[in-house]
Design brief:
The chain is mainly alpha-helical. It has 2 domains: 30 residues, no CATH class; 41 residues, no CATH class. Helices cover 38% and strands 0% of the residues. The protein is flat.
Length: 71
């Protein structure tokens, strides 16, 4: 499978890169509800802190807030 983007956790063959293996194990063992709870906390912290990013080429000249997106 060829990806149109770079995935820092998985290599081109779909294998977890060595420096992500411990994290991948933790992620696989962590209950989905705990991950969702932590995602909600991160979203709230980003909103409160005003952490934003720039979309170069965006004609609206806005700085969207970083939100953790569930896939």
């Amino acid at each position: 499978m060829t990806r149109a983007y770079y995935d820092e956790m998985y290599d081109e063959a779909g294998q977890v890169r060595p420096h992500y293996r411990e994290f991948a194990r933790w992620l696989a063992q962590t209950p989905a509800e705990l991950l969702a709870q932590r995602r909600r906390k991160a979203d709230l912290l980003f909103l409160r802190a005003g952490i934003t990013f720039t979309l170069y080429g965006d004609e609206q000249d806005t700085e969207p807030v970083i939100l953790v997106q569930q896939q």
